Amino acid sequence: MKVTRFPSNPGPAAWDAILPARVRFGALEADETTDWLIIGAGFAGLAAARRLSQLCPSDKITVLDALRVGEGPAGRNTGFMIDLPHDLASSDYGGDVSADKSIIARNRAAIAFAQDMVNALGVPPEAFQKVGKINGAASAKGMQHNKEYAAHLQQLGEPSQQLDAQQMQDITGSAYYRGGLFTPGTVMLQPALFVRSVARKLCSNRVKIYEQSKVVALKRSEGLWHAQSEHGSVKAPKVILAVNGHAQSFGHFKKRLVHVFTYGSMTRAFDAENLMGKANWGLTPADPLGSTVRRISDAKGSRLIVRNRFTYEPKMAVNPSKLKRIWKTHDTSFKARFPELDGLKMEHRWGGHLCLSLNNVPAFGEVDDGLFSACCQNGLGTVQGTLGGMMAAEMAVGHCSDMLVELQALDAPKRLPPEPVATLGARARLAWGERQAGVEL
Questions:
Q1: How is the beta sheet containing 128-130 ordered, strand by strand?
Q2: Which end of the chain has the least Cβ crowding within 10 Å, N or C?
Q3: Which of 124, 131, 113 has the alpha carbon at shortest distance from 183?
Q4: What angle do the packed helices 140-156 and 97-121 form, to 10 degrees?
Q5: pLDDT band at residue 164 using 50, 70 and 90 as cut-offs
Q6: Sign of the alpha-carbon dihedral angle for 292, 82, 427, 148
Q7: 439: which DSSP letter?
Q8: What is the mean predicted confidence (pLDDT) over 157-162?
Q9: Cα Dmax for the chain
Q10: What angle do CA 365, 56, 222 make, to 5 degrees?
Q11: How far apart are CA 100 and CA 242, in angstroms?
């Protein structure tokens, strides 16, 4: 199978750009043989490498990534590792009670696995902080969404705390929000620092990570998978695909994955005294298509991040003409929330590829002899990617667990409608949803 199409993410990965320079991982420049090959060094790929190293402590593991570690989608999200149901296609993130309880258990297993990596590998504490998050509501409709979600969480036996407008202002420094709903289980990441640190700590005489080594062909011959990069190759009996929507480029889950891009803008650092409120917090919108906002602070000052807008991009690339309109939306959303910071410039703007399925399930399982997929993370790459990587590793080595059985029992991603219905329908649905979000955007 030749791989000729690759996702193209616009702009720099801001979370990586604000970190100090670091020693690069080398590119694959030779022909190698290994026990395990993992394609992708994001949350899924690194979780798979970690789990394989636990289950097969004497095996050799090779990880290939097309980009530099931390510069792909793993370094382009907003850094929320959410334990609770967070269905982006719903009106208020919730779903069926029984199904949501299973989702919570899986999400928390992934978070616990990530916490173990932090502890065991010595990941810096600022990369992984369990501090919770807020669903912010700027409208009566948003307040109603939060009320309904709180009732749903109560049915699930999950704690939450309603926040009024003053409490929201005390936290965010912004008078924009009518209220909020705080839930305590979310981990806030510096995502690029997390994946860079985990990757570096995993490297050993058994675990090799190569970056800027895109796989351009993958085929099976004489009982081994042969992965060809631009300047080298890897042979392995088993391979884990940890490439999210890029799985389709390898010939799998065709016409079953929805390719969506979302976008972020990050301010330059500013004096923390210029904005009241807490130094660090994260806020998701009460309406799933509204604006996610986050504040981060360190000794160099504070930064604010705004993430909104979704576009359907079946070719896994964004037309640059769209970006100016998206950045204008970011600026409008930012100024509405923080008028006192008028004149503060955005230092970094970027987009990131995410993958959804119509029925909100992963593209998971053995898709060919010795080829395992940990893909389609439904917009929750930090937590569902970690889970998928863990479980793909367990499946590949024959290590059975109740959670693996549960994941294998999920339906396959639902087939998309034929073109042009799929594209027209997806773009109309996103446009309608953003209009419905109103001031939450």
A1: 80-81, 187-189, 128-130
A2: N
A3: 131
A4: 80
A5: very high
A6: negative
A7: G
A8: 96
A9: 67
A10: 60
A11: 24
